[in-house]
Description:
- By secondary structure, the protein is an alpha/beta fold.
- The chain is 40% helix and 14% strand.
- It has ten helices and eight strands.
- Strands 1, 2, 3, 4, 5, 6, 7 and 8 form an eight-stranded mixed beta sheet that branches.
- It starts with a helix and ends in an 8-residue tail after the last strand.
Amino acid sequence: MLLWQADELTVTTKINPTAPNSARVWDYWLGGKDNYPADRDAGDKAAEILPGIIQAARHDRAFLGRVVRYLAEDVGIRQFLDVGAGMPAAVDNTHEVAQRVAPDARVVYVDHDALVLVHARALLTGTLEGACDHIDADTRDVETIVCEAARTLDLAQPVALLLLDILNYVVDDTEAQATVEGLVAALAPGSHVVIAHPTAELDGERVHQALQVVMDMGGAPVTAHSPQQIAGFFDGLELLDPGVVSCSHWRTEPWPPGKPVLQYCGVGRVPDREAGR
């Protein structure tokens, strides 16, 4: 508890409770309590324009649980790099899902939000058999992420790279693509890249209006991409079935799935380089 208080004291000057923050708005949509009135106000205004945005956030979270379980259980991956991790949820954070399957799984969380890091370091601790670490870095700071992650992860072995609802905050398309390529370049063959990203494919202009209202209230710049643009992030990777689809449709059981939501996702495998691919 004393460590928690000390961490809080060191980051209070970095936290602005008067402007909406993407991680805290997301936490609010997921039913969490780690948010401020400004976050709830922004979240409500966005949901008034686009009610489906709340369901999209919850399906994104459910997708996280399914894909981490699949990668740990079916693929056998034991290392996870969660970039832009956001606020810890009450249950089924990345390390909890992975270590439920494999207690020796190693998980590194990356975020650049002061309040997120306070909560993460206090709550996301993992099993004794495995490991759980936290990196303070901007998503675009590939060099720092790779260097710091190597303290906990063996990058010569397969890693699951999670980029859920974070590339939409890298609003320059060239920079976003370069970020993905830089992170993928550090991964061993057999690694998997998981991306979830908002799209205006289903709700058109209302998606842009909902994102704009949060930005107008002081939130960080954010963008939506088409499914084709999201698929572009997987260039050079082996895109797994069912491809880039709604988070509510990725390997959902029972089948058929429910309605599509504005969060689309996909999973790609880093090919074997010796195979010449």
